Amino acid sequence: MIMGEKYNKFSKYFVAIDCVIFGYEDGDLRLLLYHRGFEPAKGQWSLLGGFVGDEESSDDAAHRILKAITGLEDIYLEQVQVYTNPKRDPEGRVMSIGYYALIRVDKHNSDKVRENGAHWWSVKGLPNLVFDHQEMVDNALHKLQQKAGLELVGSELLPDKFTLLQLRRLYEAIFQRELDTGNFRKKVLSLNVLERLEEKNTTESRRGAYYFQFKKGVTDKSFDRLGKF
Amino acid sequence: MIMGEKYNKFSKYFVAIDCVIFGYEDGDLRLLLYHRGFEPAKGQWSLLGGFVGDEESSDDAAHRILKAITGLEDIYLEQVQVYTNPKRDPEGRVMSIGYYALIRVDKHNSDKVRENGAHWWSVKGLPNLVFDHQEMVDNALHKLQQKAGLELVGSELLPDKFTLLQLRRLYEAIFQRELDTGNFRKKVLSLNVLERLEEKNTTESRRGAYYFQFKKGVTDKSFDRLGKF
DNA sequence: CCAAAAGTGTTCTCTCTACACCCATGA
DNA sequence: TCATGGGTGTAGAGAGAACACTTTTGG
């Protein structure tokens, strides 16, 4: 700020939050979208959003909004970027801070979500989105891919215990391409962040696959780079 | 105004821009910092900033501000993130969108810069910065490192022609560690984006080193990954 | 038996890294 | 001559990709 004193001569703007909410279910990477019940763009699909309040940071606002709709606290959230095109919202000048969230579908309050007219959509077949929300989704997916390439995501999206097949399907959904079974297994296990349980899952294969879970107390910094997927 | 009829119950905020301006000179990665001539935090050092105007996007605002102070258009700019802590500016609620810029020191208007009380500081020895500006610098440097690891930066920071020693020193400054001469040379040349000129620079070594320049018409997408530095 | 996933092993290729080594030249 | 950077080459370690193969078990 090179201009002086008070800021009164400058304009103020509405600042909103829009959340790209990722969930993983039935082998599908999904987004939680809302059917807008109000103008502008009433009846179209949009991301979950809200406005930033006087006493909160945008991170706080995003957590507040997510908790209200999913019932969950401690959600993984990351800022994507701000969208400031003066014409992005036809109703007025609103800047929007994009976030992406990773949700444990098995733990969220699905009744509340349904009541609010929300619906999980597969990222492979999204409806037309309102305003610049498709761009937000694209940017968010890119950020998620970066994160997943740098560390093993899973605890934020999968149930507590999961098979390597489920983990691989998650990665295939994130990167939108198929991964080699053997190579994936070796790479993931070499990271030394998973522990095998004695229990097996027999619903997805004849032979049955061991369940795994994330080791406790793994600092998230146990590996610098997960490599290329 | 028509604007915001529907949003009237929500608050509006000042939205500022703060730019982390990187330049490279004398083997040093430097930042352009301003001595604040006004309250709050008068007399301290800060990033170059300004407020977003009614009819412009934040990208536009950042370009406008940078042009006003450096005389340059077509500056490489990238959004870092938004800073929204309600207490970040003691004078009032101001959200700030952080950007980083790469400047050709040899082309910028150094007189204008000096008139405004600005000064280039080496990133290795920055003064105390105002508000959360140090955090912005850290985040910006991290983003720059990411970019430099994905593609060959250089044309945005170096003169049109440069030696591989100068390019290596730039990378050493960005990553803040020493790089192997031979390996750096091989990696960089293998990207096939530089062309050697016939001219040599004899000021930095006895033997003299060939100048290189970026090939014309290289799409910036000529390589997916520069690898690990 | 067959299909499908579980799980292991092998080979080839490429990249990164750490050096060694010669060249050219001004002080 | 020596120091310094310019420039080239090489051997080893490790990661990634492709793929073969064996195991298990419900239908």
TrEMBL record, chains A, B:
Key words of the record: Hydrolase
Q: Does the keyword Protein biosynthesis apply?
A: no
Query: SUPFAM superfamilies annotated for this entry?
Result: Nudix (SSF55811), Winged helix' DNA-binding domain (SSF46785)
Q: Which Pfam families match?
A: NUDIX, WHD_NrtR
Domain of life of the source: Bacteria
User: Which residue numbers delimit the Nudix hydrolase domain?
Assistant: 12-150
Position of the signal peptide = none
Entry's Gene Ontology molecular function annotations: hydrolase activity
Q: Which PANTHER family match?
A: ADP-RIBOSE PYROPHOSPHATASE, SLR1690 PROTEIN
Its name, as the record gives it, is NUDIX hydrolase
Please give the organism.
Carboxylicivirga linearis
Recite the lineage of the species: Bacteria, Pseudomonadati, Bacteroidota, Bacteroidia, Marinilabiliales
